[in-house]
Amino acid sequence: MPFNLPIALTWLRIAMIPLIVGLFYIPADWISVPVRDMVGAAAFVIAALTDWFDGWLARRWNQTSSFGAFLDPVADKLMVCAALLILLDLNRVDSFIALVIIGREITISALREWMAKIGASGSVAVHRLGKFKTAAQMIAIPCLLYWQPFQGVSVQLVGQVLIVVAAVLTVWSMCYYLRRAWPEIRDKGGRSLS
């Protein structure tokens, strides 16, 4: 397993997940809700920035690896799913929206794994729809974690609108990937891969 700064940043992102989740279980008499929400949102933003930064460093320093390519999306999905579960517990996101986003992540991850196994991973390569979806949810989630007004702007409303946009893009991008994979599914879906 290779180890370099980009991979270390990815591991850091994974290590931050229990810290962010744990923050929301601290008793209310230990930390005020607005402070807890602000720290939680800031921690999520820092973790999300490491996602961009580790990829940029890996490309710039020519330190890309198959392990890094595997670990990076796993870290992202774990982080988003954990944040959505926190938001569900806080009643700040609708359970249907969380189910759509988490269900899509599981479906597309399984689809990509299967397509890689049959040698057709190129047909489900990351598309700009997926990037727009990721951008919308990575802005929506810290807004929903923060929840307080900021400089006269309703951060809560921004988060609620963007999480709906992310859910729509989630379904749209999932349909796109499934449509791209359908010829391989149809041709090889019934054959044994062993």
Walkthrough of the structure:
This is CDP-diacylglycerol--glycerol-3-phosphate 3-phosphatidyltransferase. Belongs to the CDP-alcohol phosphatidyltransferase class-I family. The structure is a single chain. With 194 residues, the chain is mainly α. It has two domains: 91 residues, CDP-alcohol phosphotransferase transmembrane (TM) domain (Four Helix Bundle (Hemerythrin (Met), subunit A)), CATH 1.20.120; 100 residues, no CATH class. The protein has six helices and no strands. α1 runs antiparallel to α2, α1 runs parallel beside α3 and α2 packs antiparallel against α3.
Could you give a short description of this structure?
With 194 residues, this protein is mainly alpha-helical. It is 76% helix and 0% strand.
Kindly list the characteristics that best describe this protein.
single chain; 194 residues; 76% helix
Number of strands: 0
Total helical segments: 6
Beta percentage is under 5%
What is the count of structural domains?
2
| Helix percent band | over 70%
Structural class: mainly alpha
What is the 3D shape? Answer: globular
Distance between the first and last residues' Cα: 26 Å
Order of SSEs: HHHHHH
Largest sheet: none
- Uncertain residue ranges: none
Oligomer: single chain
Alpha carbon gyration radius: 18 Å
Rounded average pLDDT? 87
Protein name: CDP-diacylglycerol--glycerol-3-phosphate 3-phosphatidyltransferase
Subcellular location: Membrane
GO molecular function, one term: CDP-diacylglycerol-glycerol-3-phosphate 3-phosphatidyltransferase activity
GO biological process, one term: glycerophospholipid biosynthetic process
